[in-house]
C-alpha cells in the first residue's frame, strides 16, 4: 500500500516533471539566438514595412501569388529585405506553382533553419543567417539537383538585378 508520504513524494516528482517540461518548452520558444545583426522590435519597425515586419520578425506568411517576385526570372540576386545579405541567386529559382518565389538552393552560408511546429505539423523553417529574419520554409519535393524547395515569402526578399556588363 502507498502511504500518504509516498503520494506526497509522487506529487512532488510529478510537479517537478511538469514544471521542467513547461520550462523547457518555454525556453525553446523564447531562446534568443544570437545573430550578427540584432535589433529591437521598435528598431525593426523603423526599417521594415508592416508586411515585411510581419513576415521577417513575426513568422507571418504572405498570401500566395501576391509577390511580384514569384514569376520574375531576371538574372540577379535575392537579398534579405531585413539586412541586405544575398540569399539566393536567380540561377536556382524555379516555378513551383505555389505562388511563392521558390529556389532549389540558397547561397553558401546565407540561411539557417529550425524546426517549426506551428500549424499542427512539423516543417523546417528558413531564416537569414545574418539577422535571423524569417524567410519561409524548405520542403523535400524540389527539383534536381538538390531535391529541395525553398518556399520563400517574396516580401522578405529584395531583388538586385545583375549589373549589366
Ligand atoms: Fe537578414
Overall description:
Mean pLDDT is 86; it is low at 10-31. The chain has one domain: Beta Complex (Metal Binding Protein, Guanine Nucleotide Exchange Factor, Chain A), CATH 2.170.150.20. The longest helix is centred in the N-terminal third of the chain and has 27 residues, at 4-30. With 165 residues, it is α+β, with helices and mostly antiparallel strands. The strands form 2 sheets. Strands 3-4-8-7-6-5 form a 6-stranded antiparallel β-sheet, with no helix packed on it. It has 3 helices and 9 strands; from the N terminus they run αααβββββββββ. The relative contact order is 0.18. Fe (iii) ion (FE) binds next to loops.
Estimate percent helicity.
10-25%
CATH C-level: Mainly Beta
Tell me the CATH architecture: Beta Complex
Round the Cα radius of gyration to an integer and report it: 21 Å
The sequence of SSEs as H and E is HHHEEEEEEEEE
Task: Bin the strand percentage.
Answer: 15-25%
Q: CATH homologous superfamily - what is it?
A: Peptide methionine sulfoxide reductase
What characteristic shape results from the CA principal axes? globular
| Total of domains | 1
Major sheet: arrangement of strands: 3-4-8-7-6-5
> Low-confidence segments, ≥5 residues, pLDDT <50?
10-31
- CATH fold assignment: Metal Binding Protein, Guanine Nucleotide Exchange Factor, Chain A
Average pLDDT reading: 86
Bound molecules: fe (iii) ion
Report the structural category: alpha+beta
